Structure formats: C-alpha cells, structure tokens
Amino acid sequence: EHVFLMLFGADGIHKKTVRISDGTQTGVTLDIPRCVRLAFEYDAAVVLLVHNHPSSALPSPEDVAMTAQLKNAFDAVRIEMREHLVLTNDACYGILSGRIIDEKPVRSRT
C-alpha cells in the first residue's frame, strides 16, 4: 500500500502531492504530525488522502481509525480534510463519505 497527501489552497488550486507512506500488502502506518506540518508548509486549506488497496476497496477498521485521527488533527488546526480515498483496480471508496464513489464492472480474466 502507498499513501499520498494531496494539498490544495483555499482557492481550490492543487499545490502539492506528497507520498507520505509505504506499507505492506496488509497495512500502512501514518505520521499524523508530519501530515499536518506538510499542510502548513504548503499553506493548504484543504487536504485529500489517497491510498491504494491491493484487493478490496472497502476500508479496514485500521483505515477508518487512522482517518478519524487524521481528520481530528486537521480539524484542530482548521484545515479541511475533504476525503480519504481507497483505490483499487476496480473501485474507489470514500471513507469520510462512507460509500463507493466509482466502481468498474469486474472483468473476466480468462
């Protein structure tokens, strides 16, 4: 798994995308203070977290807990965390919105 933090200004202009963590096939750890520092460094008003899943687009309980912790950290400094997207080859799930955002039909691999 790989995790990216996308940083946007108050005007909605993309400022920077930073690869903030690399994990294993089963999980990833996140340095929350580093994420907040990066948002301040690039003067971000809005952030978006994106990471890939090698299998299911559904988030793990650890993903949901990590998202809540990160959102609380950004809320404390008045930076909007818009979403945490989990991407696979076939789907995109928004943890904060609690739903699959996009899903491709499963293709036969014969």
How would you portray this structure in words?
- There is one protein chain.
- This protein is α+β, with helices and mostly antiparallel strands.
- The protein is globular.
- The chain has a 6-stranded mixed beta sheet with strand order 2-1-3-4-5-6, covered by helices on one side.
- It has helices at residues 32-41, 61-76; strands spanning 2-8, 14-22, 46-52, 80-87, 91-94, 99-103.
- Helix 1 packs across helix 2 (61-76).
List keywords for this structure.
single chain, 110 residues, alpha+beta, 6-stranded mixed sheet
List the helices and strands and how they pair.
Blueprint: E1 2-8, E2 14-22, H1 32-41, E3 46-52, H2 61-76, E4 80-87, E5 91-94, E6 99-103
Helix pairs in contact: 1-2
Quick overview:
The protein is of the alpha+beta class.
Strand order of the largest sheet: 2-1-3-4-5-6
Q: End-to-end distance, in Å?
A: 27 Å
Which structural class is indicated by helix and strand composition? alpha+beta
Question: How many E strands?
Answer: 6
Mean pLDDT score, rounded?
88
Q: How much of the polypeptide forms β-strand, as a percent range?
A: 35-45%
The whole-angstrom Rg is 14 Å
What is the count of helical runs? 2
Q: Fraction of residues in helices?
A: 10-25%
